[in-house]
Amino acid sequence: ADLAYCIDDAGAEVVLRGEYFYDDANTESQDGYTISNFRGGVRGRYLFGEMWLRNAFNTNYIPVAFSYPGLAPSGFIGEMGAPRTFGARVGVTF
Fold first, then answer.
1. Residues 6+ positions from 73 with CB-CB distance below 8 Å
2. What's the predicted TM-score (pTM) here?
3. Structure confidence by residue, pLDDT tens digits, 57-92
4. CA–CA distances in Å: residue 30 to residues 3, 46, 65, 76
5. What is the CA radius of gyration of the chain?
């Protein structure tokens, strides 16, 4: 039986976003922010495993917001960006 495993794939990604405005009048903006993502895996002859982590430092950000006067105190409504998420995957190849 072949019990040798090797690091199959590893990676890191850093996404830098500068300040940007939600409307043409430049009345509301999102400050610049950074998102860091990591992944790594091992592979044997028949088995493999992988783990991943997105938004590793749990950065709070609002990627999109729309002007909606009267609904919110700021006059804008938006959705928070994805929080820190992680996962794993295992499988068999033949």
1. none
2. 0.76
3. 999 999 888 888 887 777 888 899 999 999 999 999
4. 50, 47, 9, 12
5. 20
Listed in order, strand segments (DSSP E) in 1-94 are 6-17, 20-21, 29-30, 33-43, 47-54, 64-67, 76-79, 85-92
> 24-61 pLDDT, tens per residue?
888 888 999 999 999 999 888 889 999 999 999 999 99
CA dist 14 → 18, 36, 53, 54 (Å): 13, 5, 12, 10
Whole-number Å distance between alpha carbons of 66 and 29:
11
Does residue 71 sit in helix, strand or coil? coil
What DSSP character marks residue 69? T
Sort residue 55 into left (φ over 0), alpha (ψ -120 to 50) or beta: left
